Amino acid sequence: xxxxxxxxxxxxxxxxxxxxxxxxxxxxxxxxxxxxxxxxxxxxxxxxxxxxxxxxxxxxxxxxxxxxxxxxxxxxxxxxxxxxxxxxxxxxxxxxxxxxxxxxxxxxxxxxxxxxxxxxxxxxxxxxxxxxxxxxxxxxxxxxxxxxxxxxxxxxxxxxxxxxxxxxxxxxxxxxxxxxxxxxxxxxxxxxxxxxxxxxxxxxxxxxxxxxxxxxxxxxxxxxxxxxxxxxxxxxxxxxxxxxxxxxxxxxxxxxxxxxxxxxxxxxxxxxxxxxxxxxxxxxxxxxxxxxxxxxxxxxxxxxxxxxxxx
Length: 311
Hints:
The chain is mainly α. It has 12 helices and no strands. The C terminus is likely disordered. It holds the Pfam family EamA. Its main location: membrane.
């Protein structure tokens, strides 16, 4: 009975991780739709985050989940995880604006390498030679995606996508210490609130416009009421049960969904060489967790992060 319950919970966690990956994969396409409606990247991240935060925190309050939250966990999620998530998403949306949704979503998928590097920095665990080879392969795949095809990718767009990948990895690893202390709904709401405040401040300081077409509002509401709560909330559920390494494997769905959605809804196309580069990135990403499993160690997470996980 216990084994059956454990398998059931694991299946739910994997399902939540997959749902989160699909939601994140659709995000760049709807960000591009928002841009067409006149929304700037910072305003888009701010408003979608605040809409999602309001929904999640209202649900957390209605179910009594907010009462048990300690101020330390709330501060960590809102003031550390929130700005990290918001700024990396701002970099990603800015990259989408420069490179298009398809290319940005493939480049940003290099984030498992940054997760691996951060865990090495925190634990000083020796990196497997196979992981280093996969890192080289992924870098080559990114180069094919970014440098091939009929339209050249602007260097600043590729850099923004890489910065987003690094920021997302930092968000994953740092957030592990707080995520077990609160419910996934509350964690998602607090992180979204912090993201909205941080990016809203950037938008105000930069003097970005807050007026745009109805299609811009449609993109904001679709992301804030559906994609963002599913993406953040389900990912917290998955990381609590599976850990950030396993969730990064589920992230393989993101570029696939992102590329197909951009092709269907936006008419974007990748060249054959870019498709080959995407395949290299996906295969190398899929192999990373297996490389880790071949050399089991007492822990694959920093001691300081035990007992808490996030996304």
